[in-house]
Amino acid sequence: MSYAMREPCKHCGGTEGRLDTRNGQDCVFCIGCNRLSYNAPRAETGREVRRLRTRPDVKPGVRARILERDNGTCVLCHRSDVPLDVGHLISVDAGRKAGLTDAELYDGENLAAMCASCNSGLSSRPVSLRFAVALLRSRIAHREVAA
């Protein structure tokens, strides 16, 4: 199915593309050279716009504990100068495929402070195992210091 691109392809100048969804992102590929032209926002492609606020809410008390535990800093990019949300280390999609319950998915150990860019950037993928292990080691060390 042909998709009218909003701008000509930077590689070949073509104006017709095809829409392909990868990891939740709508990608527009040029039909002429088959190269990625741009990532299209869902508002442009007509798909339902996904917002972090449309997910089941994390209770305010849990959110406050997670943000405090993570020192008001995004666990992925370490920024503290941007608004933070609470995101899942094991994504809801991946967790459900693995058979996790909502209680397990929304448990504090699976939640972390994240800026909107990092949280949205993960899409439906979980964080890497290497990162999860490093984060858990950091949390354990923090608990030992606090005790």
Describe, in plain words, how this protein is organized in 3D.
It is elongated and about 65 Å long. Helices cover 33% and strands 20% of the residues. The chain is α+β, with helices and mostly antiparallel strands. The chain is built from six helices and six strands; from the N terminus they run E-E-E-E-H-H-E-H-H-E-H-H. The strands form two sheets. The chain has a four-stranded antiparallel β-sheet. Strands 5-6 form a two-stranded antiparallel sheet. The longest helix is centred in the C-terminal third of the chain and has 18 residues, at 129-146. The protein has two domains: 3-45, no CATH class; 52-146, no CATH class. The chain has helices spanning 42-45, 60-69, 92-97, 102-105, 116-122, 129-146, and strands at residues 3-4, 16-22, 25-30, 36-40, 84-88, 111-115.
Largest sheet: 4 strands, antiparallel
Helix content: 25-40%
Straight-line N-to-C gap? 60 Å
Oligomer: single chain
Protein structure class: alpha+beta
Secondary-structure blueprint:
Layout: E1 3-4, E2 16-22, E3 25-30, E4 36-40, H1 42-45, H2 60-69, E5 84-88, H3 92-97, H4 102-105, E6 111-115, H5 116-122, H6 129-146
Antiparallel strand pairs: 1-2, 2-3, 3-4, 5-6
Features:
4-stranded antiparallel beta sheet, 6 helices, about 35% helix, about 150 residues, alpha+beta, 2 domains, two-stranded antiparallel ribbon
Give a brief outline of the structure:
It is built from six helices and six strands, in the order E-E-E-E-H-H-E-H-H-E-H-H. The model has no long low-confidence stretch (mean pLDDT 85).
